[in-house]
Specification:
The chain is mainly β and 97 residues long. The chain has one domain: Jelly Rolls (Sandwich). The chain has no helices and seven strands. The strands form two sheets. It has a four-stranded antiparallel sheet, with no helix packed on it. A three-stranded antiparallel sheet has the order 5-2-7, with no helix packed on it. Strand 3 and strand 4 form a beta hairpin. It is elongated and about 65 Å long. The N and C termini lie far apart (53 Å). Bound molecules: calcium ion (CA).
């Protein structure tokens, strides 16, 4: 299991897959990639992916996404490639009068 956190201040994170090929196995997702909508695995699952169908692009609700890659000891498929985009910056209201 490998975990990686992306933390970017003040923005949401949008994730788009360019390639996905993770072993589904017979019982579903023998190998998988799980995106948590927060800082740890205690956060709600934003998306869990396996197989070879590209998931629809999805966005976090905050500035934190924790990604976990889980794999077992058989069947090696070609893996995954995704990119992420930080949301647009939001200007604070003008308080200078
Ligand atoms: Ca495997």
């Amino acid at each position: 299991m490998i975990g990686k956190a992306f933390v970017i201040t003040g923005v949401t994170i949008t994730i788009e897959f360019e390639h996905l090929d993770l072993d589904e196995g017979s019982s579903g997702c023998d190998d998988s990639l799980t995106f948590y909508d927060g800082m740890t695995t205690a956060a709600p699952v934003l998306r869990r992916v396996c197989g070879s169908s590209l998931p629809v692009t999805f966005t976090s609700t905050s500035n934190m996404v924790f990604v976990v890659f889980s794999t077992n000891n058989n069947t090696i498929d070609s893996g995954f490639l995704f990119k992420y985009k930080i949301g647009e910056w939001t200007e604070l209201p003008n308080t200078l009068g």
